[in-house]
Automatic annotation (TrEMBL):
InterPro entries: Homeodomain-like_sf, Transposase-MT_Hybrid
Superkingdom of origin: Eukaryota
Main location: nucleus
Protein name as annotated: Transposase
One GO cellular component, as annotated: nucleus
Pfam families (UniProt xref): HTH_32 (PF13565)
Amino acid sequence: MEPARVSGTVSIEEQRAYIKIETLRGKNPTEIHSALSDVCGELRVDRSTVSRWSNRFRGGRVSIHDDPRPGRPKTSTDERNVKRVADALKQDRRATCEALSEVTGIPPASIYRILTNDLKKRKMSARWVPSIYRILTNDLKKRKMSARWVPYNLTG
């Protein structure tokens, strides 16, 4: 009997939970990976990942969540600072990263990262605007391409 495919995606934590349960039931990583492949298809974790997590669970690990990573935690691009930058930007959409840095006390490089990555903004005509304005429609792309070729076609 063919296993039913689940519509949507199965998160990494859900796959780890399945690996944990099947490991405790005594299945080997190859069998677990095969079962995940049947259900998740291409969105499954790698065979080596199944083996690594299976070994961890056999060794007594309880949690399916990642351990805290070493190194300095992110501080300047947290949610509180993203809100502060968004509020400052509402006051003046023409503000530079340096000006926003003076207002918020966040380094200019972090301001730029927040604007481009978190708030999805880009500078256009001295204003920070949503990145969606940068996307060209197919019709505009065709017009742009045909306009580029006009001088070459006229010179013969």
